[in-house]
Amino acid sequence: MIQKIVEKIARYIRMYGFLNTINRIIKSVIKKITGITYEDVYVLSRKANILNYNIPQDVIIRELKLSDLQNDDWRREFLSKEKYDDYKRRFSNNSIKGYGLFKYGQLASIGWILRGKVIFRGDVILYSEMVSMLYDKYNIKKFRGGQFHQLLIKHCINDIYNFNKIYATNHTVYVLVLDYNK
Q1: Which letter does DSSP use for residue 31 in this model?
Q2: What is the dihedral of CA 9, 17, 38, 85, to 10 degrees?
Q3: H-helix or E-strand containing 27?
Q4: Are 171 and 161 in contact (CB under 8 A)?
Q5: Are 178 and 41 in contact (CB under 8 A)?
């Protein structure tokens, strides 16, 4: 049991850094005691339009499959049991779409698009109309610095643009960024 806790803390330190891990632990304790969850986020917005970008020959961007996440790099660095279970739920939700960027066939970066009415807390609605939101983006360490995150974001924004011009009146893309990722 203690070993699992230590492994989880070590994984969080690798993902978020020491101080942000302490912050996440405190939030987790507050959630256990009070049942209240909170996150400080920045909501970035931009007008959706087609973005031009070049994808290198050794890179593929496509819709994510659950099996894509079942590899040692992602399990070791990022994918806890809880996160994996959360991702399984996302794959069964038609309002959520995951994308993966693959370099030489290896999953390097992921991002998620949520479509619909966005609710942040309880019944407080941030946007009550149909929107698309890009969130929970992650790049594993061995692929950082290769502009893969930006390529994936541009691909997702283009997907959102194509969806919004057919289904939504709001042609804005919203991107959630947790405060410690600013």
Answers
A1: H
A2: -50
A3: helix 18-34
A4: yes
A5: yes
Helix, strand or coil for residue 35? coil
- The string of DSSP letters for 119-181 reads EEETTEEEEEEEEEEEEEEEE-GGGTTSSHHHHHHHHHHHHHHHHHHHH-S--EEEEEEEGGG
d(CA 40, CA 117): 20
In whole angstroms, how far apart are CA 76 and each of 7, 36, 72, 92, 124?
A: 10, 29, 6, 24, 36
* Assigned token pair, 84: 């994996």
- The 10s digit of each residue's pLDDT in 102-157 is 999 999 999 988 877 655 554 444 555 566 777 788 888 888 888 888 888 888 88
Q: Provide the β-strand partners of residue 44.
A: 175
Distance between first and last Cα of the chain: 33
Letter for the amino acid at 133?
A: M
Tallying the residues shown for the chain, one arrives at 182
Helix count and strand count (H, E) for the chain: 5, 6
| Phi, psi dihedrals of residue 75, rounded to the nearest 5° | -65, -45
* Among 59-63, 83-87, 103-107, 127-131, the least confident range: 127-131
Phi, psi (5° rounding) for residue 180? -80, 0
Which pLDDT band holds residue 23 (cuts at 50, 70, 90)? confident
